[in-house]
Structures are given as structure tokens and as C-alpha cells.
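Researcher:
Attend to C-alpha cell order:
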Amino acid sequence: MNILNENSPVALYYQLKEILTQKIVQNELVVGERLPTEFELCEQYGVSRITVRQALNELEQDGLIYRKQGVGTFVATPRIEQSLTSFYSMSEEFRKRGLTPRTEVVEFSKELPPKKIAKALELGEGQPVYYIKRLRFADDTLMAIEYTYLPLVTFAGLTKEELDTTPLYDIMRNRFGVITSSAKESFGAVAINKDDAAHFGLPEGYPALDLERFAYSGSTCVEYTTGVMRGDKFRFYVKLD
């Protein structure tokens, strides 16, 4: 057990916060595991309840824990910090953090796209697309909902069964020989609407990130995606020189 130093210039609540953070980062406390109660932490570390509550409040603000009223405090799915300086795969980013990615395809159809999407994908009038609605999970936590449009002429024969078991970009590359070499993405702050909130199991109006992505193979746009991502689970950054 780590001992708190009362003679340190570092506040006791912060010392406790750092101890618990390390236990979470080093997987001594794993995702979904229940933390000791406030009383147990007071006894274990010899501090007041105010100190424990302040440490837990900051851990919750950092997205490391979450509370269930009347049940307890639990280790949260870690926040995904992602650089926007290069192309990335959401599934691969989950794996890097020790999380198991899972995609649930809830809608899959062929349809004629709206004019904006047809223009982005450089499709002529009457050319159909695949429309795909996917729920993106890390372990058992829903992290994002994506609405994707793919030109049918490029990915003829694509099936829902493939998408249920294989990452989209792997299918593009390995089956169709389409390599996504670049993308243009934009994000904005939004409040989750009623339908998406039902998927996430969150209250309507919860903070989220609104995503729009154009993915390219060479100079050709091969994917248009919009989506909503949990605002408390993602942080994007850009290095500026």
C-alpha cells in the first residue's frame, strides 16, 4: 500500500489521486472494477472523507472513474487521446490502449444518396451507395455512432456479414484493393439527440463531438462518414510547430 506523506508540500488529496491513477493506468484496478468505498479509502490511507471525495471528484473529471448512485464508484473506460496529424483507425487506437474493439452494424442498405454525398463521392445521377450505421464499442462501452456512405460501384458485393466481423478499412484494402491514403475530418461540439442518447444509455443533451469525414484513395473520395462521439471519451490534439 502507498503511504501518504503529511509533511509533503503536495496536498493529500492530490497524493491519493496520483496513487489511484497509477493503479488504474497499471491495471491494478481494471475497467469496470468497483473501487473501495469512501470509508474504506479513509481507513486505508488514514485521511478524512473530504480528502477522499476531492481525490475522487478529480478522477471523475479526468474520466478515469464513474459513479453509480447507490451502487459505488467504478473504473471507467479510458479516454482516447488521438493525434490528428496522420491517418488513424478507431479499432487500432482502442487496441493500443488494451481495449477490445467491437462494431455492431445496425443498418445496412443500398440507396440513392443526397446531393451533397453524391457530389463528395463524385457519383453521377442515379448511382447508388451503401448506407451503413455502425455502433463502435471499446470493450462494452459504446464510444461512437457512425453513419457511412460508400460508392456501390467501388465496393460491389460488400455484405453486412463482412462488416460484422472485419474492420471496414481492412475490407477496403484486402478485398477491393482500395487503400485509404488520406482523410479530411472536422469536429464540433454538440448535444446528443434523443435517438443517439438511447444507444449510448446517456441523458439527452449529454456533451458529444460531431464528426464529418471524407476518406480518399489517392485523389478519389471513397468514403463519407458522419457520426457522434462521446465527448467524455475522446480528446483530439494537433502538434503545432
Remarks:
- The mean pLDDT is 86.
- Strands lie at 65-68, 72-75, 80-83, 101-111, 129-138, 141-151, 182-191, 207-217, 220-230, 234-237.
- The helical segments are 12-25, 38-45, 49-61, 90-96, 115-120, 160-165, 168-176, 194-200.
- The two ends are 43 Å apart (CA to CA).
